[in-house]
Hints:
elongated, alpha+beta
Amino acid sequence: xxxxxxxxxxxxxxxxxxxxxxxxxxxxxxxxxxxxxxxxxxxxxxxxxxxxxxxxxxxxxxxxxxxxxxxxxxxxxxxxxxxxxxxxxxxxxxxxxxxxxxxxxxxxxxxxxxxxxxxxxxxxxxxxxxxxxxxxxxxxxxxxxxxxxxxxxxxxxxxxxxxxxxxxxxxxxxxxxxxxxxxxxxxxxxxxxxxxxxxxxxxxxxxxxxxxxxxxxxxxxxxxxxxxxxxxxxxxxxxxxxxxxxxxxxxxxxxxxxxxxxxxxx
Length: 266
């Protein structure tokens, strides 16, 4: 990263108003976008190739452990059996854990809102950088011929199918229009999702300390796709009893720092 003076800031991101760039900016030239749909689709194809089965609309309603096996009851009445349950249920991880008789880790789902709007005609969109204010109260970036924006909200929410709030979108529009030359006349698409955090904002990865056969993979915050490959390898290695992968351990990551025991014991 490097520091930009106000003039450099406006040359790089000419949509900013001069007063918004008066303090300069931090520029991260090696930042890249990620094609979330393509990455997620690749993970699913790899899972299917390895024999996994994807079941949709299959809410777990009961979890009972007996004789070293889980009996898993689904909402449609079907029952499954497994030696190990991996609790990778996102915002519902604490709910699922309690079904299994485990203590929650204090997961807090937080709503994040995003929307798209038309870009002014004539902009060289592919070469415009993403812009985020220093306080992280808004951002916008080019997105396939338009702009994607957000108020960078983190509103606590119960686990749910999150929906965007009109007030959050209005707040983002006001902030972006105050700081830039943009005039947002029409919202094209809008959505919301839940980013789940524990108190220390680290991942929760490892076997539950008190409930046999329950493995946690939760608390990814807003970094699920970015950490997905490494977190998946880490979870698989720990779940199979192979320990921490060497490259991840080499970064100073420890099992204890990620273990659910740091919240569920003591």
